[in-house]
Amino acid sequence: MILECFFPDIYVKSVYELPIEELKAKGIKGLVFDIDNTVAPFDIAEPDDDLIELFLFLKNQGFRLCILSNNNKERVQLFNKNLKTLAVHKAGKPGVKKLKLALERLKLSPDNTAIVGDQIFTDMWCGHKAGLTCILTAPICNRDQLVTKVKRGMEKQVLKVYFKRERK
């Protein structure tokens, strides 16, 4: 089915519900995070203390982390200031060029890395094209940039098919 390139391998409501032990059992050593509406609302400039703690926890669990955002350099650098992780701006998702560069810098391969994002047409498609495990989160809030709002309607239709199939 053509829609499968947009389906996640794992669905969680929030990054705080990542199945850490399941990921470790699958051999996942790296996590690549989207920013906007995955780990923070798009209009929040810096991570809150909970997210900083989560990133520290994940690093202490042995995961190598990266932020991969289609957003601009200023947005990504400011957001990453307190996370202190590899950060890639203007990623061009669903293109995979910058994702592959990030994997090289992290010394990871697609089969031991997962991408975590809230959008199926950018994050999930990018992850699948690159051979990563794809983890979809529910968007943090209903506020979106205009271009994302336009995609959300189509996204809902694709996710209806995904969730219907998962219930079987």
List keywords for this structure.
single chain, 168 residues, alpha/beta, six-stranded parallel β-sheet, 6 strands, globular, 41% helix
Brief summary:
The protein is 41% helix and 15% strand. It has 168 residues and is an alpha/beta fold.
Describe the structure.
This protein is α/β, with parallel strands linked by helices. Helix content is 41%, strand content 15%. The protein has helices at 20-25, 49-60, 73-80, 97-106, 120-130, 146-167; strands at 10-12, 30-33, 64-68, 86-88, 113-117, 133-137. A six-stranded parallel beta sheet has the order 1-6-5-2-3-4, with helices on both faces. α5 links the parallel β5 and β6. The protein is globular. It starts with 9 loop residues before the first strand and ends with a helix.
Strand content: 5-15%
Number of helices: 6
The arrangement of helices and strands along the chain is EHEHEHEHEHEH
- According to DSSP, the number of beta strands is 6
> What is the 3D form?
globular
Unreliable stretches (pLDDT < 50, length at least 5) are: none
For the biggest β-sheet, the strand order reads: 1-6-5-2-3-4
What is the CA–CA distance across the termini?
Answer: 16 Å
Structural class: alpha/beta
Helix content: 40-55%
CA-atom Rg in angstroms: 15 Å
Q: Largest sheet, if any?
A: 6 strands, parallel
Overall average pLDDT: 92
